Amino acid sequence: MDNSNKRVKPRTWIAIGAAAMLVLTIAAVAIGYRIGQVTDRLVQAPVPEATQSPSPEPREEATEPTAAGEASPPPAAEEAGGGEAERAEPNGPTASPPAAKEAEPAAAEAGGAAEDPVRAEYEARFAKLRTGCQAKAGQLSGEVVAYIKQARQSGGKVSADELQEQFMEEIAASEAECDRQFDAIVADAEKEYGGSEAGEKQLTEWRSGYSASKGKARMTAMAAILAAWGAGAE
Asked: For the chain, which residues make up each domain, given as ranges?
């Protein structure tokens, strides 16, 4: 009897275990099915009507007739027209200032000439003198260059003493004549200005300009002579 009872017990435990596993499986399937139903309801739930805002219905505004029998424009049209007028207004006045600004320098120059007529007169005299003196300096430097080239072509040699002997007297005389004419013009301008401060300032400016022009003419002539001298030396 004891041996049969011992053999029965393991089978009983196996049966109980199998039944328990079956129950757990069924419960798991049932729980999964319920969760799936709840999830479907949540996904397919309709949107509440309270969240949908109704579209506003258009309103018709009554327009009152004017005295002439015409309907007055709605306020929106009046505001739009006013806005366009305000936006178009700044573009109008800005069209003329550039032309006025361009005319300012010319007006200033004309005003300066009108305030100082002596300056305009003597500027013309100084310009004429400057042109004549520069032309004379160019002529003399051209003669020196031609003399050097001719001597080189004939096989001769040209020295600095020879050039000084040939051209220095004429060059000095030409420069002295330009200085004399310039001093004469300055003397006339001094009489016109009568010792005024503006006149003295203008005379100083003319003297500085004449000295600069004379120095530039000398450098130009010297460069041409040295170029001819160097070409002959090669």
From this structure: 116-233
